[in-house]
Amino acid sequence: MQFRLVRYFTFASLAAFIVVTSLLGLAQRHIAIENMIELQESNSINLTKTFANSLWDEFLPFVKRAGTMDREQLHNDPEQRRLLKEVHALMRGLNVVKVKVFDLNGLTVFSTQASQIGDDKSSNGGFLTAIDGHIVSELTHRDTFSAFEQEIENRDVLSSYIPIVSPHNGRIEGVFEVYSDVTPFLASVSDMTWLVVGLVISLLGLLYLTLFFVVKRADNIIRVQAEENSRVQLQVAQNEKMASLGQMVAGVAHELNTPLAFTRSNLSMLMDFVDELRLPLKWGGRLIGKLREDTSGEVHLKIRLSERTRRKLADLDNDLSPEQLQEMLSESLTGLEQMSELVVNLKEFTRLDRAKIADFDINHGINTVLYIAKSAIGDKIEIVRCFGDVPTIQCAPSQINQIFINLVNNAAQSVSEHGKITVTTSCVDGNIRVEVEDTGQGIPEDVLPHIFEAYYTTKDAEGGTGLGLSISRDIVLEHGGNIDVESKIGVGTKFTVLLPVEQRSGQALAA
C-alpha cells in the first residue's frame, strides 16, 4: 500500500499542534497561577508583618490564655470587637476577605467571621505546616464564602497559613491564616492563557502551512522517484530473469534443434519422393480421367514409353511405403509440437505483466519452470516432482515463476552430475509451501547470512549478478509470504517458500 505522506503529515501535525497548544496553555496557566500564589503569599506575609507589628501584642493575651477560656468567653470578650475594627481598618482597600489567628494548640482565638472563634484547627494540614515553621497556601473555588459577616459567591480564594515568630526568642507564638480573593487575578490569568493559546495557534498554523507546502512538494518528488524506482526495479528484475534464461540458452537451443533437425530431414526426403512420384501421379491422373469418361466399365490402355521415360521409371525408388510416409509425417508433427510447447513455455515465463494479479496454479507454474530448466540441465541431474493437491493462489504469476527459476537454477549450479533436485508443494495453514531441495555441495556458514543481500555472490563475473535471491526474497515478501534456507556442507541445500493462498487487501506487488 502506498504511503500517503501528506495525509499522515496532516493528521500527525494536527495532533501534535493540539498537544503542544494544550501543554503550552496549561504550562502558561500553571506558571501564572504559581506566580500569582507567590505574589499573594508575599502580600499575605507583609500583611501578617503589619498585623504583628501593630496588633500582635493585643492578640498575644488571647493566644496565651485561650486554653483557659471557653468558646463563649472568647466570642463575647469585648476586646474582640475592638480588634475586629482595627483589622477592618488595616484591610481596607486590600483583596483580603478573612483573617484568622490560632494559638499553638490550633484553637481559633480570633476571626473576622465571629462565628468561627473557638474552632479547633489542630488537625488542619495548613496549620500543622505553619507550626513547623513553613508558609503554605491553598487555592480553592468557593461557591459561597463568608467574608466580614457577609456572603460572597462564586469566588476563587487563596488561603495562606503563616507562622508568627517572636522577635525576642525566635520561637513560634501563633499562626495567622489570611484569605485573599484572587478571582480577578485568575480571570486575568484565563484571559492571558487564551491569548497565549490563540497566539500559539496562529504561529503553529503559519508553521503548518509552510511545512505543508514543503511536504507536499517533497511528496510529489518522492512519488515521481518511487515510480521511477519501480520502473528501474522492474527492468532489473526482468534483466535478472533474462540472465537466468540466458544461462539456459544452450540447452533450450538443443531442445529446439533436435526436433527441428529430424523434421527438416523428413520433409526433405518427402519432397524428393514426391518429385519422383510426379510421372506416376501424372499417369494416374489421366487414368482416373479416362475412367470417368468411359461408361462401359471397361478401359483398354496402350502405353508407349520413350527411352527417357523408361530410364526415369528404372530410377524410381519403390522402398518407401505409405506406412513409412505416414510415420515420417507423424515424427515431423511430433517435433513441431515439441518446439511449440517449448515456445509456449518460454513465452509464459518471459512475459512482462509482472504486476498483474491473477489466480495461479502454482504446480503448473513450477512445471513450466522445470520444463525450461530441464532443457539446460539435461539428463545428468534428476528432477523429482512431489506436487501436492494445492489450491490456486492470488499472485503475480510472472514474479512467482521468477522465484523458482532462480532457486532451480542455483540448485542446478550446485549439484554435480547424477545429483538430484526435488521440488515439493503442499498446503499448510492457508499457505502454499514450496520446497526446492538439492543434493549439492551446500552453502558455507559464513556465506549463508548474506545470500539474500543484493549483489552478493560467490560466483565469478559470468556466473551471476548476485541479484537472483535478493529479488526472489523481495517478491516473496511483497506477496505477504516468507522464504527460508537450510544448508549443510556436503549434503545439500533446501529453500522453503511460503505464499498465502489469498493476497492481502491492498497488497502492493512491485517488481
Features:
alpha+beta; rod-shaped
Blueprint (SSEs and pairs):
Layout: H1 5-54, H2 56-65, H3 71-76, H4 78-91, E1 96-102, E2 108-111, H5 125-131, E3 136-147, E4 150-165, E5 172-181, H6 183-246, H7 249-276, H8 278-293, H9 307-315, H10 322-350, E6 358-360, H11 362-377, E7 382-387, E8 393-395, H12 397-414, E9 420-428, E10 431-438, H13 468-478, E11 482-488, E12 492-500
Can you summarize this structure?
The protein is α+β, with helices and mostly antiparallel strands. The chain has helices at residues 5-54, 56-65, 71-76, 78-91, 125-131, 183-246, 249-276, 278-293, 307-315, 322-350, 362-377, 397-414, 468-478, and strands at 96-102, 108-111, 136-147, 150-165, 172-181, 358-360, 382-387, 393-395, 420-428, 431-438, 482-488, 492-500. The strands form 3 sheets. A 5-stranded antiparallel β-sheet has the order 2-1-5-4-3. A 5-stranded mixed β-sheet has the order 7-9-10-12-11, covered by helices on one side. A two-stranded antiparallel sheet has the order 6-8.
